């Protein structure tokens, strides 16, 4: 069963300097065409009405950059195709300052029950330096308006290890973020991605990132601050009050199936992963022609499926459950990984208990090195065939 739906809205009023997602400056005519193409893609690929899914996530870009009319048109299609009333979690991404009262009422009337706000940092100067349009005051105004209208399940995104950011700067951001007492926080170290403003600056030697030891200190500060305030870490970069973990993101980390609609969106269906066309004119043309704007389809072998199960599952602090793995694949993961597990336990990076394997506190800092230990050769699977 397909558990979740991801819908991509690629428009932004301004392009952030670190962002490598599929995104374009907002243009009303192009956005009108995109909305119609997106609706056609959904209608072609999802038969019938009121299909049951656990989560829906509208991401971007900036979905709330769309006009009231454009947003309503997409929400109507989603409501027609999916059983919104029994959907556990229905999230939309937004930027502080994007909401007026009418848009908030619109989102709530179509069943959206969770808002993910791209705050990034509580510092006006730093916000400007990373290409954000909003100010710190907009965060306060937006959260207040959302809560007034009953949209209290709010998550905010933060980024650390930003250019010229000190540990003390990040502490100030964390302290301010915690004061909102929100149910969920996603906090990521800055990644320098190709085809971004920051990447070009980095190549020219003009991007001054904090030293690695400061980045590690920021992460430790993050974990300790959240813990002290009753916000539990449940994934490498995500923290929540009990019961408010992101159900949609858990679809990814549990390696479950999901639809991906929109330019550049990725989907995961039984046996295959798909990636959509990214350029807008090409996406719109293909989506309107046949509703199949797919650029790539990768067949997932047993080897790849097992590796993905480990890489994604170990991002969760609960780790890989033994029974769940055996139920999914028909054999115990110890039969493949006993040597790797033993080595990582000896290093102090992995905890191996009766129910699951999961990263230790130290192992979280060496996640990539841990994941490498779970790569397979084809011969590793020979005795299981």
Provide an overview of this structure.
- This protein has a 9-stranded mixed β-sheet, sandwiched between helices. A 3-stranded antiparallel β-sheet has the order 12-13-14, with no helix packed on it.
- The chain has about 375 residues and is of the alpha/beta class.
- The radius of gyration is 21 Å and the shape is globular.
- Strand 16 and strand 17 form a beta hairpin.
- The longest helix is centred in the N-terminal third of the chain and has 18 residues, at about 30-45.
- The chain has helices at about 30-45, 70-80, 100-110, 125-130, 135-150, 165-180, 195-205, 210-230, 245-255, 280-290, 300-315, 320-330, 335-345, 360-365, 365-370; strands at about 5-10, 10, 25, 55-60, 90-95, 115-120, 155-160, 185-190, 230-235, 240, 260, 265-270, 270-275, 295-300, 320, 350, 355-360.
What layout of secondary structure does this protein have?
Elements: E1 4-9, E2 11-12, E3 24-25, H1 28-45, E4 55-60, H2 68-81, E5 89-94, H3 101-109, E6 114-120, H4 124-129, H5 136-148, E7 154-160, H6 167-178, E8 184-189, H7 197-203, H8 212-228, E9 232-235, E10 238-240, H9 247-253, E11 258-261, E12 266-269, E13 272-276, H10 280-290, E14 294-299, H11 302-313, E15 320-321, H12 322-329, H13 334-347, E16 350-352, E17 356-359, H14 361-365, H15 367-372
